[in-house]
């Protein structure tokens, strides 16, 4: 399992633009992944991607956690959600998982922030 990354993009983003966002935000930090776990957005299941994203229970839970956290933080007009993502990412990655007994941040860097 790797760190959770949250990158704000519009739902209308083209797959080619999303590719560059992916390269800048994920690949430059971690290299080319063996797989992508996503919510099956068509941009991740298009023919452009040379590997096939998978969805599992863990990713569903993370997406659900992100949604719940954002619901509690975002203003009613929902204009500030993108600015909340860095702290949501930090909270998720530094939270100790009951199943792993470690935080993702700790597994990646060897210490808790």
Strand coverage percent? under 5%
Q: Helix segment count? A: 5
| Distance, first to last CA | 18 Å
Mean pLDDT over the residues: 83
Number of domains: 2
Shape: globular
Described by strand count, sense and barrel closure, the largest sheet is: none
The tally of beta strands, per DSSP, is: 0
SSE ordering: HHHHH
Low-confidence stretches: none
Our Rg estimate from Cα atoms comes to 15 Å
SSE class: mainly alpha
- Percent of residues in helices comes to 40-55%
Short précis:
The protein has helices spanning 15-30, 42-45, 57-73, 81-94, 104-109. The chain is mainly α and 113 residues long.
Structural summary, described in words:
This protein is mostly helical. The protein folds into 2 domains: 12-54, no CATH class; 56-112. Helix content is 50%, strand content 0%. It has 5 helices and no strands. The longest helix has 17 residues, at 57-73. The radius of gyration is 15 Å and the shape is globular. The mean pLDDT is 83. InterPro entries: Retrovirus_Pol_polyprotein, RNaseH-like_sf, RNaseH_sf. One of its GO terms (molecular function) is nucleic acid binding.
């Amino acid at each position: 399992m790797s760190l959770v990354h949250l990158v704000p993009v519009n739902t209308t983003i083209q797959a080619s633009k999303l590719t560059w966002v992916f390269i800048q935000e994920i690949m430059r930090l971690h290299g080319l992944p063996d797989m992508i776990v996503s919510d099956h957005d068509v941009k991740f299941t298009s023919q452009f991607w040379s590997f096939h994203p998978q969805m599992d229970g863990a990713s569903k839970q993370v997406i659900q956690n992100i949604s719940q956290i954002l619901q509690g933080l975002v203003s009613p007009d929902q204009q500030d959600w993108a600015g909340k993502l860095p702290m949501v990412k930090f909270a998720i990655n530094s939270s100790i998982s009951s199943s792993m007994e470690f935080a993702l941040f700790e597994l990646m860097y060897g210490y808790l922030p």
